[in-house]
Amino acid sequence: MKAKILTLPGDGIGPEIVASAVRVLKRTAEKFGHEFAFGEALIGGAAIDATGAPLPAETVKAAHEADAVLLGAVGGDKWDNAPVRPEAALLGIRKELGLYANLRPAKLFPALKGASSLKAEIVDRGIDLVTVRELTGGIYFGERGYRTGAYGREAYDTESYSEIEIERVARIAYELAEKRSRKVCLVDKANVLTSSKLWRKVVTDLNEDYPSVRLDMMYVDNAAMQLALAPWQFDVLLTSNLFGDILSDLTAAIVGSIGVMPSASLGATTVGMYEAIHGSAPTLAGLDKANPIATVLSAAMMLRLSFDLEEEARAIETAVENTLDAGLGTADIGGTLGTRAVTDEIIARMQA
């Protein structure tokens, strides 16, 4: 097959980890007889430096013309006082591409059991779950501002969700669960929040369309505790923008490192965006120390979800797992190799 992939290296370690993923994708194309054409565009702080804006119109145009987008990372102390923060580009490109669902798999590789924050008897039961986070609604996009109240200055942020916003991301969660263990757990705060009550009604009604999937519901505070005590009980976690942002970082801790956590953002168009969930780590930039695995695994998700290339995606994931099984990795997961050397090892195992 032929595909156009737009890379957005961004800031900090972004260019290094994207370069690693591109190398793996090129090797995949060679191995399986595909043609991947790679383009590159500016985003985040790098775009601010070059154009004055974190998301130039040229980048948006290139994203719409691509079949998929591979993102590095954005942000850094350098742009703390910029009129518009680099991170605004993330919200902007999600909106432009209609990306309303973020999938964050958390799978514990056997070689990283010792890096998990959990006790051995918990880890030994295995962890393999996906957080499906609503991406374009909720408190991050609600009405906000400052005002003067009876006790001085006040600030407010509004949590608001529509039925359509909930239904469309819930369908993605249900369809994903049908391909996994047929379990969805809706995580909310329906004992306090009116918006969560609507989530429960919409998701429950929608369950009729997916009769093979078991629907459970859990308050977010209990869900956080259960992830630490019994993560094996979860398959697909469905939740709002805010709760998903928080819980997916918790799942990174229980599988050993945020450096091995990929993600996919999907939505209204055929163009998906794929990225590691970690940040730009500017103190590591240019030092050949960044862990490329999360971005490499994000590339595998791209092959599976955007191009329907299951065998190719599994080839990458198996190569990553075999590399970890050999005790090879970067410092954040107890290894001694650099970014490029880890990538070399993954590619070598793909060749094998």
Description:
The chain has 352 residues and is an alpha/beta fold. It has helices spanning 14-32, 45-51, 57-65, 88-97, 120-123, 163-178, 194-206, 220-229, 241-254, 293-305, 310-325, 339-351; strands spanning 2-10, 35-40, 68-73, 99-107, 128-134, 144-149, 152-157, 183-188, 214-219, 236-239, 264-267, 272-275. The strands form 2 sheets. Strands 2-1-3-12-11-4-5-10-8-9 form a 10-stranded mixed β-sheet, with helices on both faces. The chain has a two-stranded antiparallel sheet with strand order 6-7. Strand 6 and strand 7 form a beta hairpin. Helix 8 (220-229) packs parallel to helix 9 (241-254). The longest helix is centred in the N-terminal third of the chain and has 19 residues, at 14-32. The chain is globular and about 60 Å long.
Rounded Rg? 20 Å
The secondary-structure class comes to: alpha/beta
The largest beta-sheet arranges its strands as 2-1-3-12-11-4-5-10-8-9
Strand content: 15-25%
Poorly predicted sequence stretches spanning 5 or more consecutive residues:
none
The run of helices and strands is EHEHHEHEHEEEHEHEHEHEEHHH
Note the main sheet: 10 strands, mixed
Using DSSP, what is the number of strands? 12
Helix content: 40-55%
Number of helices: 12
**Average pLDDT number:** 95
The end-to-end span amounts to 23 Å
C-alpha geometry:
globular
